[in-house]
Amino acid sequence: MLKFISFGSGSSGNCYYLGTATDGLLIDIGVGIRALKKNARDYGVSLASVRKILITHDHADHIKSVGSFSHDYNVPVYATEKVHDGIDTNYCVQRKLTSEHRKMIVPDETFVLGDFKITPFFVPHDASENMGYEIEAEGVTFVIITDAGSVTEEMKEHIANANYLVFEANHDVEMLQSGPYPQYLKSRILSPIGHLSNTDCGKTLAENMTEKLKHVWLCHLSEENNHPELARKTVEATLRSYGIIPGKDIQLEVLKRKVPSEVYQLV
């Protein structure tokens, strides 16, 4: 049975775990390595079972501990060439990846790693490059899309494929516009290579999800420009306006920024 855990979701650090009975992977390691080890131990997850790491993009909150983890557990790291170059030059990554652990992937080229069939796809964001992932394992299709400034046709196709989806709901537009951020940062977040709002998240879900989609987790919420309950209510209201009833037609939850989620069984 496939398991999913969020070990952190937001600008303080992102890290997600998928595991079968015999294999495991992490998507991003932007949380502290000590906290990750402790939380995994508390959840009864053996990090020694993690045999590969997928990286979405090269911002510090997604890669801070990737070198340390890769070294400590002898785990290869899969990312595009541009993202690997960004990891190499990011000063927040104190321990760099070895050439042995530096594995290249190509957008839209599906590959198989152990129990997982993985398709990376482009997501617009102001990083060197940013990937979403569609991951198939044990008859389940899991899709993660984070740090998205806008929604592409390709992203819509992957949402339509998903049984389980982690999707960004970063900010409430009114909170952002009236908040303390300088104008250049507000403009960056609102740009097509910034972050998705709660409203855009809900509309994209409503217009592209299918009956296959069972569960959605809202991710990467801003601490200053959003609130978990506001994000949930906004997305829920948008879904209801399309005749989709959360709790009945779909399960909708918000991932916490600094606290691990529960262990979800994906069937």
Alpha-carbon distance between the two ends: 7 Å
Number of strands: 14
Computed CA radius of gyration, to the nearest angstrom: 17 Å
Gross geometry: globular
Structural class: alpha/beta
Poorly predicted runs are none
Approximately how much helix is present in the residues?
25-40%
Main sheet, how many strands, which sense, barrel? 7 strands, mixed
Q: If strands are numbered along the chain, what order do they take across the biggest sheet? A: 6-5-4-3-2-1-14
Tell me, rounded to a whole number, the average pLDDT. Answer: 97
Provide the β-strand percentage band.
25-35%
Give the SSE order as H and E letters: EEEHEHHEHEEEEEHEHHHEHEE
Helices, by number, come to: 9
Brief write-up:
With 267 residues, the chain is of the alpha/beta class. The chain has helices at residues 33-42, 60-63, 66-73, 81-89, 153-161, 173-178, 183-190, 198-208, 228-241; strands at residues 2-8, 15-19, 24-27, 50-54, 77-79, 102-104, 111-113, 116-122, 131-137, 140-145, 164-168, 215-219, 251-254, 264-266. The strands form two sheets. A seven-stranded mixed β-sheet has the order 6-5-4-3-2-1-14. The protein has a seven-stranded mixed β-sheet with strand order 7-8-9-10-11-12-13, covered by helices on one side.
